[in-house]
Design goal:
Blueprint (H helix, E strand, L loop, with lengths): L4 H61 L3 H9 L7 E8 L2 E6 L10 E7 L7 E8 H51 L19 H40 L2 E5 L5 E4 L1 H7 L3 H4 L4 H4 L6 H12 L4 E9 L5 E12 L5 E10 L1 H31 L3 H8 L1 E7 L7 E8 L2 E9 L3 H19 L8 H15 L11 E9 L5 E7 L3 E4 L5 E4 L6 E2 L12 E4 L4 E5 L7 E2 L4 E2 L1 H11 L5 H16 L8 E7 H12 L1
Antiparallel strand pairs: 1-2, 1-4, 3-4, 5-6, 5-9, 7-8, 8-9, 10-22, 11-12, 12-13, 13-14, 13-17, 14-18, 15-16, 15-19, 19-22, 20-21
Helix pairs in contact: 1-2, 1-3, 10-15, 11-12, 13-14
């Protein structure tokens, strides 16, 4: 494979740089070595002279003192075993007393003088050495040249080795990486060859990982684009189903585009619509307030929804258009107009008007039914002649309800029927009519007065007949009921109940509960008579309380839960009296407190009466 010009130029540049560095380093090292060697040579020569002078100098002095001139000469000649020493002088008292050679140091010698005092007692002998500096310099230059050649060779060898490694580990992977990057395309990334983890700090591997990631990303992008196309197709299909047409307004709020569905629905043509404002197409332009509000939203460039106006179609009909719009802005944030959808809601509005009319008629009917139910409901003044002091509260959840109170007599015996029918509202009201009709049939039968259990049984039988409840067919309708009658001697009341208990409150505030049978009337056919227990309760100044389950089943409190019987009885004790009005009012206050912000779940009815109170007043009047 032929090397590219860029690669050859880069390698050549590296070689030039490395050679320059090699020779620069070799020169610096050689100069340093030469300076170091010169300093060491001088130091070594001085050290050698000092050692020799200390060892031989005393012998020379003693031979001189013995006046042995031959011995002095031989000893001084021994100093010349060191090539750097070229002459020696022996001084006594500052005067030369002996020299070698006898003529002294040569005049042409570049000498360095070293004087060494002799360690001989009470003498002033000093030996002076003349050192030849030229000899030291010559030796140093020989050593320096040798060291320089070796340094250049070693550094050059290291540089060549480093260059080869650089080419192997850096340049070649770098060229492969460059080649891969040059031929790669976004949709076809190419991996770099001969790249290891330790080369280029892992850059090649990182590039290969990026290439692999790019391939995966491109593959995912193709899938995403396909999904986007499918999503756009779904959106268009859903948009066509969910709306009737699309439109666009320009910055002057004129129609710039309207889809073909609009023209198909209205029978208008593009010339009559495009370039016009919405108000110019409307038939209800006289509704100035509506159009002023809409224009204000357009001027503020805010989104609007469900704006309706009427349009005259091509065949002369009125069409109610319902449009929504969203402002459109350019990349620079400049307002460009509106884009939105529209629907033909003509038939919907007609159906809505018909439904409103039907609701009005139904509401009127229910209101009349409520008025009729109020007329049938027993009143406090109806009960007082027989049952004394009475407090009655009736609060249906809706206009009509399923809780009801009926006062009737069989013979001269007064009765109270206190009952809670299935459901509330209109269904509950119909059940009340069935029960009231059943009670009318029972009280008009030519029989003697009945006990309360018999009346419960009669009501159950009548409801089963009315709802066609047989041994083979049950129903989902019925009632809870309590029947009370006052004895002829006015000394006790009789009570029997179906899921509605009777509570008695004594003058001291003590509560007594008289339980009803745990079974409702209606719902299912029974092969045997009802097991309703008859309770005969003496008056003794007691106040009697009946309430439907709309109170005890009301959700409220913290945390939200049903009130329950325990709290119900606590409210009766809270009154601290057995006065019917105080007891009933305490129950209603407690109900409102317990209910809080919760909705009313069921009809509510409360009856509290104290028969003995009215009888006492009547006796006083007769006296």
């Amino acid at each position: 494979m032929r090397k590219s010009p860029e690669r050859r130029g880069l390698i050549f540049s590296f070689l030039i740089v490395y050679l320059a560095i090699v020779f620069l380093l070799a020169g610096l090292v050689t100069v340093g070595f030469h300076l170091y060697r010169s300093q060491v040579s001088r130091s070594e020569a001085g050290l050698q002279v000092g050692i020799v002078a200390v060892e031989i100098g005393p012998l020379v002095v003693r031979a001189y003192q013995r006046q042995d001139s031959e011995a002095v000469k031989q000893l001084m000649r021994s100093f010349f075993a060191f090539p750097a020493i070229h002459c020696v002088h022996l001084f006594e008292g500052g005067k030369v007393v002996s020299s070698w050679p006898e003529r002294g140091c040569p005049e042409h010698m570049q000498a360095g003088i070293i004087k060494v005092p002799m360690p001989v007692e009470d003498t002033g002998f000093v030996i002076e050495f003349g050192l030849d500096n030229a000899y030291d310099k010559e030796q140093n230059w020989v050593s320096t040249r040798t060291f320089g050649v070796l340094s250049v060779f070693v550094i050059l060898l290291v540089a060549v080795t480093f260059t080869l490694l650089l080419i192997r580990l850096v340049m070649r992977p770098l060229m492969h990486l460059q080649q891969a990057m040059l031929i790669s395309t976004p949709d076809n990334p190419v991996d770099a060859k001969d790249v290891n983890a330790h080369q280029l700090g892992g850059a090649g591997l990182i590039y290969n990982q990026m290439a692999a990631t790019a391939r995966r990303y491109y593959s995912k992008m193709e899938k995403t684009q396909k999904q986007l196309r499918d999503s756009q197709a779904r959106f268009c299909d859903m948009a066509e189903i969910s709306t009737d047409w699309f439109y666009e307004l320009d910055r002057n709020f004129k129609l710039a585009y309207v889809s073909d569905q609009f023209f198909q629905l209205t029978g208008l043509n593009k010339k009559e619509v495009v370039g016009k404002t919405l108000a110019s197409l409307a038939l209800d332009q006289d509704e100035q307030g509506k159009w002023d509000d809409h224009q204000e939203k357009l001027m503020r460039n805010t989104e609007f929804r469900q704006f309706e106006f009427r349009i005259r179609t091509g065949d002369g009909r009125d069409c109610v258009a319902n449009i929504s719009g969203k402002p459109v802005f350019s990349d620079k944030g400049k307002f460009s107009g509106y884009r939105g959808t529209g629907r033909d809601v003509t038939q919907f509005r007609r159906n809505q008007e018909a439904l409103a009319e039907a609701n009005q008629n139904f509401g009127d009917s229910v209101a009349y039914a409520s008025h009729f139910q109020h007329r049938l409901l027993a009143k406090e003044q109806d009960l007082r002649p027989d049952f004394g002091k009475v407090r009655f509260i009736w609060q249906p959840r809706d206009l009509v309800g399923g809780d009801f109170l009926t006062y009737f007599s069989i013979g001269e015996t007064p009765y109270i029927a206190f009952y809670d029918c299935t459901g509330h509202g209109v269904p509950g009201g119909f059940m009340v009519m069935l029960v009231s009709a059943a009670i009318d049939r029972i009280r008009t039968q030519p029989t003697a007065p009945k006990n309360c259990s018999e009346i419960l049984q009669n009501i159950h039988d009548e409801i089963c007949d009315a709802l066609d409840i047989t041994p083979y067919q049950n129903a989902t309708d019925g009632l809870d009921c309590a029947i009370i009658c006052l004895s002829r001697d006015k000394k006790y009341i009789e009570y029997a109940g179906a899921n509605i208990d009777l509570l008695a409150v004594s003058k001291s505030g003590t509560l007594a509960r008289y339980p009803a049978m745990r079974q409702s009337l209606g719902y299912q056919y029974l092969d045997k008579a009802l097991a309703a227990e008859r309770h005969k309760i003496p008056l003794d100044g007691q106040c009697f309380v009946l309430a439907t389950d709309g109170i005890v089943t009301q959700i409220g409190g913290m945390p939200a839960r049903m009130m329950g019987s325990r709290y119900f009885e606590a409210l009766l004790r809270e009154a601290k009296s057995n006065d019917p009005k105080k007891l009933a009012n305490s129950l209603m206050r407690g109900l409102r407190r317990w209910q809080g912000s919760e909705e009313r779940r069921d009809d509510v009815m409360v009856l509290a009466f104290c028969p003995e109170e009215e009888l006492s007043d009547r006796n006083i009047d007769q006296a």
